[in-house]
Amino acid sequence: MSDALIKVSMENTENSVDSKSIKNLELKIIHGSKSMDSGISLDNSYKMDYPEMGLCIIINNKNFHKSTGMASRSGTDVDAANLRETFRNLKYEVRNKNDLTREEIVELMRDVSKEDHSKRSSFVCVLLSHGEEGIIFGTNGPKNNKLFQRGSL
To answer: A Pfam family for this UniProt protein (predicted)?
Structure first.
């Protein structure tokens, strides 16, 4: 397997209000070989030889119901696009979901948890939304983040 070099560049635009400017950031992914891994105990290493790298779900909540009093999140579309590109470059299957209510987030997580993930090395869920300590906002209001703990679905 060869090494991968990922270049990330993001310019400030009207949609990047919430995001920090990144100019020509380079991330190098080095795939191990037996000679590199010879000193690592296999019991403490992460298996990386699955048929698929993994699944990445990006939930992008930009527009909120008026009843929440939450403003639209400008800049979130740029963040979502950069995340999508990054995870695709890392060979993940990426699924984008926009403006989900708290109930739709729960339903999506339940559905994804029932899928066969045995051929994937990892699962990533990115939730771009308003939030507070221990609370994530669906487009219709807050949801306690205990939803994302093991065994809660």
So the answer is: Peptidase_C14
CATH of the domain at 127: 3.40.50.1460
Residue 146 amino acid letter:
K
Tell how strand 52-60 and strand 22-29 pair up.
Answer: unpaired
Long-range contacts of residues 128-135, Cβ cutoff 8 Å, at least 24 apart: 128/58, 128/59, 128/60, 128/61, 128/62, 128/73, 128/76, 128/79, 128/80, 128/83, 129/59, 129/61, 129/73, 130/61, 130/64, 130/70, 130/73
The model's pTM is 0.68
> Is residue 138 within 8 Å of 103, Cβ to Cβ?
yes
| pLDDT tens-digit series, residues 62-108 | 999 999 999 999 999 999 999 999 999 999 999 999 999 999 999 99
Task: State which residues form the domain around 84.
Answer: 5-9+46-144
pLDDT 10s digits, 32-49: 555 555 565 666 666 767
Residue 8 bridge partners (DSSP): 25
